[in-house]
Design goal:
By secondary structure, the chain is an alpha/beta fold. It has eleven helices and ten strands. Strands 2, 4, 5, 6, 7, 8, 9 and 10 form an eight-stranded mixed beta sheet that branches. A two-stranded parallel sheet has the order 1-3. A hairpin with a 5-residue loop joins β5 and β6. α9 crosses α10. It starts with 7 loop residues before the first strand and ends with a helix.
Length: about 300
């Protein structure tokens, strides 16, 4: 029988998960490692795939944290060109987020543990009509359906998945917003000065501007502010990473940066996803003492 893990509650440091689609096969290992280490953050934020990491972390479910980005990709209803042709998206978002998480389904979500957890969350989506970010917290999710539709909205990659209509608004991936996909500014607005940030690209990565801007403006002609946001995201994203590495240099952030990212955002090969997760576990285990030291130093 497994011995219960002693929990260390962390209130002065924000935990932030970047998105990146199936690259979260690697970074979900940080969810697993933090949970097994008993590190319980009171404030956790995520955008896109980072939103899934966020809610899995708050539910305390190491099984779901891994399965969401490894085995689940083999589910025949996960997505593909057949679903895209039907208008359901390259990733079958309604199934992934709003059906599979139910009891006795393919990816059951531990709602009771999520609701009982001491931590709060911030999930960020992007309003395709107004161009504004929307920030959801636990108070916005009194029921599992309220939570999962917001995780879906935050994860809706424009063009690859149909937008989410919710409360009279049209939402897509929060990565289109102010920080390009990493919820640093929101954490700073809420008063945090110390951060554990989980990135999904290697340290020397630089996002390049989108080519064929006229094509994107044509595709999203109904949502011109979304087209603008998509075409300028590269700049916001790179600037946010620069801010993060500056915080790291100042000793204000522990930044988990993949030593190597062996998959991309749409990888569905289970062997590659499993290998990425193992890489993440190895790196997270190696960094765990430094994370503990960072948290202890910040709390002293």
């Amino acid at each position: 029988m497994t011995e219960p893990v002693e929990t260390t509650r962390i209130s002065d440091t924000a935990l932030i998960f970047e998105g990146g689609g199936m690259r979260a096969s690697l970074t979900s290992a940080m969810v697993v490692t933090l949970l097994k280490a008993g590190l319980s953050f009171d404030w956790v934020a995520g955008i896109s795939a980072g939103a899934s990491n966020t809610v899995n972390y708050l539910s305390g479910d190491v099984w779901r944290a891994r399965r969401s980005f490894v085995e689940f990709a083999a589910d025949e209803q996960f997505g593909g060109f057949r679903y895209f042709a039907r208008g359901q998206g390259m990733f079958n978002a309604e199934y992934i987020y709003q059906q599979a998480g139910g009891p006795n389904e393919a990816l059951p979500f531990d709602w009771d543990s999520y609701e009982a957890s001491t931590g709060d969350m911030r999930i960020i989506g992007f309003d395709a009509e107004s161009g504004e970010d929307v920030v959801w917290s636990k108070k916005d999710t009194p029921h599992i359906d309220d939570l999962m539709v917001r995780v879906r909205a935050s994860s809706t990659m424009p063009g690859l998945m149909p937008p989410v209509h919710l409360d009279g608004h049209v939402y897509v991936d929060g990565a289109m917003g102010e920080d390009g996909g990493i919820a640093l500014s929101q954490a700073q607005r809420e008063g945090f000065e110390k951060f554990v940030i989980v990135l999904t690209q290697e340290r020397d990565y630089k996002k390049e501007p989108q080519k064929f801007s006229a094509v994107y403006r044509g595709i999203f002609r109904k949502y011109p502010v979304l087209a603008d946001a998509l075409l300028t995201r590269w700049k916001r994203y790179n600037e946010t990473r620069e801010r993060i590495f500056e915080l790291e240099a100042q000793g204000k952030a522990h930044v988990f940066v993949p030593d190597r990212m062996p998959v991309d955002n749409s990888t569905r090969d289970l062997s590659r996803l499993a290998a990425a997760h193992r890489m993440g576990l190895s790196q997270a285990k190696r960094e765990l003492p430094a994370i503990r030291d960072f948290l202890s130093a910040q709390s002293a």
